[in-house]
Amino acid sequence: MSLQIIADDIEKNPDHKWLILCPLILIENAWLPDAAHFFPELKVVNLHDRTKAKRLKKFQQDANLYITNIESFVNYREHIDKLNIHGCFVDESSTMKSSRSKFGKEAVDYARTLKRWYLLSGTPAPNGEWEYYRQLQSIDYYGVHQSWTQFKNYFFDNVSYNPQFEKLQVKEHRRDELMQLLRKYSVYVDKEDVLNTPGRDFITVDITMPKELTEQYNQLRRELYLELMEDDILITAPSAGAKRNKLNQVTSGFIIDTKSQETYLLSDYRFRVLENLLRNIGDEQAIIWCNYHKEFEVIQDMLGDKCACVYGRVSIEDKNKNLKNFKEGKVQYLVANPASANKGLTLTNARFAIYFSMNDSLELFEQSADRIYGDISKQAHRCTYYIIQAKGTVDEVIYQSIKNKGDVSMAILTHLKGGIQ
């Protein structure tokens, strides 16, 4: 749709230039191939490159459409200004959700110089309606309050019991006003309403931790530390957030010493469960979603050349190559971090996804789940998602809260206190 808008405008105004700002991984895995396939007549320049000198040379090239990554926009703003862009699409505008975001502030300023400005997102405000502020401001600078504080105080109450933190809630007598404001500037389309989708199933794979691991988990949950007797190591979790992360690691069978950054493997029980699950799936391709480097290392050793990885320690060149190999069926498994491969990618060559571990982000979960899901013209098979979770642990708390779109933080705190999950 976005490319059609651009093509229609350029047909009428050949001198117009357009810009797309998107996550780096989507340049070569979404925008460039789609532009080449659907609108080969468009002259497209990818402004991203490995060095600054090479990037600056690309700014000298003439094109109808320029594409660059959101992460580079602020650093190259002065060069982008010289392109005399007519219109811009921001793909995954949830990058503007924080009122303090440097990109968000810069994007608001840049939008005021353009004739046309579009925001695209499947999850524009994953944590609450307050995250629409910068996005609304970029679309109509004078249509909303001039400062974040004014906007916040007008539409929201802070219902937090802790004065050090904010927990915003829409004022009931202003909810309709806020919704009308959003409707004025947005078009919402539900995938299930406009696409003929094959349907999907979410299946929990409940596993029991080994006795020793359970004891270690409970010790950490109660005492804020874990003592590894054989290595004479004491690993502490000084805060609730650190405790949650450490408990999450233990259920995966390892723990990271934050001070030394050493990783200690406690049990391979979860990896054996994954092995059995993949054996049951058979020759089918599958995406395995993970969160920690140790998980990637063990799974890669386990699957060998049957898998390719996409996570923080993999370069963008290798990420692109690994995604291409997976989509072309050259590898059976893609092991990915939801934060690295959750948005905009079409991976409908697979119909199975396995959540080896989960973090507490509803946005990342929904976006990652959509990678294998789509219209039956692209995804002809019903999709199956396996959620591996250790019984009686933070795994269950996180998934239940995400599934019910509840307050994950509060549910985890209740679990840490030993309360009902």
CATH superfamily of the largest domain: P-loop containing nucleotide triphosphate hydrolases
By CATH, the architecture of the largest domain is named: 3-Layer(aba) Sandwich
Question: Mind describing the biggest β-sheet?
Answer: 6 strands, parallel
Shape: globular
Low-confidence stretches: none
* SS class: alpha/beta
Write down the overall mean pLDDT: 91
Q: Remind me, CATH topology of the largest domain?
A: Rossmann fold
In spatial order, strands of the major sheet run 8-17-16-13-15-14
Distance between the termini: 44 Å
Structure description:
With 421 residues, the protein is an alpha/beta fold. It has two domains: 192 residues, Tandem AAA-ATPase domain (Rossmann fold); 217 residues, 3-Layer(aba) Sandwich (Rossmann fold). The chain has 19 helices and 17 strands. It has a six-stranded parallel β-sheet, with helices on both faces. The longest helix has 15 residues. The two termini are 44 Å apart. The model has no long low-confidence stretch (mean pLDDT 91).
Write the layout of secondary structure elements.
Layout: H1 2-12, E1 18-22, H2 24-38, E2 44-46, H3 52-58, E3 65-69, H4 70-73, H5 77-81, E4 87-91, H6 102-111, E5 116-120, H7 133-139, H8 148-155, E6 156-158, E7 168-170, H9 175-185, H10 191-194, E8 200-207, H11 211-223, E9 225-228, E10 233-236, H12 240-251, E11 254-256, E12 263-265, H13 269-281, E13 286-289, H14 293-303, E14 307-310, H15 316-327, E15 333-336, H16 338-341, E16 352-355, H17 362-369, E17 383-390, H18 394-403, H19 408-416
Parallel strand pairs: 1-3, 1-4, 2-3, 4-5, 8-17, 13-15, 13-16, 14-15, 16-17
Antiparallel strand pairs: 6-7, 9-10, 11-12
Helix pairs in contact: 2-15, 6-7, 11-12, 18-19
